[in-house]
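Table S4 entry, Probable peptidoglycan glycosyltransferase FtsW.
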Amino acid sequence: MQALLNKTKGDRWIWLIIILLSLISVMAVYSATGTLAYKKGEAVEKLLLTKHLIFVLMGIGMIYIAHLLDYRYYAGISKILMIVTIPLLVYTLIFGTNLNDASRWVKIPVIGLTFQTSDLAKLALITFLARMLTKKQENIKNVRESFIPIMGSVCVVFVLIALANLSTALMLFGVSILLLIIGRISIKQIAIVCAGGFVLLLFVFFLGPRRKTYMSRINTFMHPEMQHSDKTFQADQAKIALATGGVFGKGPGNSTQRNFLPHPYSDFIFAIIIEEWGTVGGIVIMILYLVLLYRCIKIVTRAPKAFGALLAAGLSFSLTIQAFANMAVAVGLGPVTGVPLPLVSMGGTSMIFTSVAFGIILSVSRDVEENAGVVSKEEKDKVKNKVIVGEIPAFG
């Protein structure tokens, strides 16, 4: 055990946030899955232990393994991921498993589990963008050599995800724009990207296969008073959970809205947390993600290599934007989407890919620490040599 702890490197605050979010996840999902267990005729403990708890432990294991691997290896892995991801997204659109009126999942043969291909696509695109922006820095202003290859990958992935999952595609597009800014792409080119993204958005929104679903959600959000109660049901139940939670909540396990919300253990888990732990509990969750973003920004500013900085920036932006998008939906500040709360919501593939993202960030952090240690040692050796030759008086 001590040997394992000795090998655990990276930002200690991020490790603490991971542990806290994992514990919150187990407690919140344990409470929120009561109704689901009842419908399936299983004990809550069995449902939790056989699924969510195993994935939480697997996730922590993935974080540990990913953080031990030098983050530079992910540059090579990103090419393989992109080669696999694009055909997989196409396959998902055509042959994917339909859940909640959307083809977002692919069933894994033999074991029968399903996974959401957009989770893999997010990780693939961010790592690939970080690699491309680093590789093209010498010619970053060149449209043909840098801009077109970089934006080609962004646009293809955006469209393929947006056709089945617009909210995830928009968040990923936003993260890509932030990476382009950090990667020194010119403002003029970024403006062109945004204009092109807007055109693609209009195409997906008005001509895509899920256009009716997207328009319905926007109309429901903008004009809830004009909608039927069945269309605003999820949002209404979430608001009831928020209102009855008060400042300190009803207490762990005492939620009543988990019996009415369709997905209290995933999409609306933040509403259940506030109902049981109150506004105070909700603020604590928000602070944890803000501290995560702050610690990641510190890693970005201290990273010795451009690839590490871009990688940590992209993944941290992706995690925090997704977290606040989920919370915004739960409190009624955005239309209903299927975005989980990172490291908290129940969901196997989401938990695994989120954990890998955390592991990569910690890998960059580990490299920052090791480089800082080398610099510190070199400085000490220089001072020691100067003392020996009499350049600096040795006190004490």
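The radius of gyration is 23 Å.
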